[in-house]
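FAQ

Q: What does a record look like?
A: Structure on top, sequence underneath. For example:
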């Protein structure tokens, strides 16, 4: 239920070093979240001349694992970003609470999707959007 999912992949020129490719890749990831999100914490997991893996936590709570690997034949850098569950949040929830959140979000989203936009209660939509975002942060899944 809370497995990582590929969020973004990109190939960088062989002329770039891994550090420059990572900086460019992080800018691409930040574009996904919009202008208000920033990088909160970066934790390198492993690095070498051909491989760099880092766990990044963003100001919106999302955690992303980046993996950059230089192809030994073409020397291009292949970059991948995977959404990861936020284990700090998950550790505070029981599986029953998490399942209840999933059921509520799924039920309410279906209800809203079947209505005309003009008929949707805006406060209900705000609560639903907030719950959906929190569930995405907690599980690392794009629902």
């Amino acid at each position: 239920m809370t497995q990582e999912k590929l969020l973004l992949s990109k190939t960088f020129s062989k002329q770039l070093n891994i550090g420059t490719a990572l900086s460019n890749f992080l800018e691409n990831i930040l574009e996904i979240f919009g202008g208000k999100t920033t990088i909160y914490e970066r934790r390198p997991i492993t690095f070498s001349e051909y491989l760099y893996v880092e766990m990044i936590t963003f100001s919106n709570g999302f955690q992303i694992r980046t993996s950059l690997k230089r192809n030994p034949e073409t020397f291009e850098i292949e970059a991948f970003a995977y959404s990861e569950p936020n284990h700090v949040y998950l550790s505070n929830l029981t599986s029953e609470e998490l399942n209840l959140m999933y059921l509520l979000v799924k039920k309410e989203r279906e209800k809203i999707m079947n209505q005309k936009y003009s008929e949707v209660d805006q406060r209900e939509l705000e609560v639903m959007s907030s719950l959906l975002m929190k569930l995405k942060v907690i599980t690392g899944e794009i629902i």
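Q: Is there anything notable about this one?
A: The radius of gyration is 18 Å.
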